[in-house]
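Action item from last week, closing it out:
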Amino acid sequence: MDDTDIILSVDGVAKTYADGPKALDSVSLSIRRGEILALLGPNGAGKTTLISIICGLVSPSAGSVIVDGHDIVSDYRAARAAIGLVPQEVQLEPFEKVLDAARFSRGLFGKARDDAYLQRMLTALSLWDKRRSEVKALSGGMKRRVLIAKALAHEPRILFLDEPTAGVDVELRKDMWAVVEELRSNGVTIILTTHYIEEAEAIADRVGIISGGRLVLVEEKGSLMRRLGRRELVLTLGDGEDLPPALARHGLSRSADGTFVYTFTEEGSLAALLADLAAAGVTVRDLETRRRSLEDIFVELVKNGADA
């Protein structure tokens, strides 16, 4: 990875709280400009602690973080100005109007008033028509969008989304994915934490998995799915038929419902099985292929570590 492409560098970051166990254990991570990274992990894995350290809300016990060339400790203001944070909890002033909330957030970072930028941003978030509405009058999904608007008001180059679609219905969740893709197309680097595995599978470029305070794995999503996304072929044979001994070398397993399951990663091995079935005269009444999902991979990696 070219150093000029790296916008966020985390090096050996650890965090141990005085009244508890180690929350993070020597986490190192480099994030490219303009990418979407999904951080997955069970509750208590360390995702929010890592984000809080990068955003300057929590001090690390060890290690360093560089945000767009700025150290989060020695050059805190510049580092923090490069970051927008959308927290997991909806914390908004109920009587504040949408446009005023965005203006206030922009002012907090010392940015000059720019209503043209705020209009473009709120329009992209489908909030412009609600700009004079009080927050308390908005739906849960719209309140989530207001949080994103506040985080983007000062034009950050990195956006952290901590469980952005928690409690949001499926339709609004898909709308949020479209918003994230639009932000990326405008050059914003996005780090997303989520419990919705399909969210990561749909929009992330890379996937990072945190478990027990350790970064178990960081890999391109496509590469990860090719490497660990094993596929299965489910065969239903003719009535009363069984597999001949000559096909034992393929390692098919018989399910309780009488079907046979063949696990494969390479298309060539599937072709060889089908050729052998035809040569043996086996009647295949039905067949179905299914692919192991990112959720299956995630569960296995968290359970067994990076050697899944």
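Closing note: The first strand starts at residue 6 and ends at 16.
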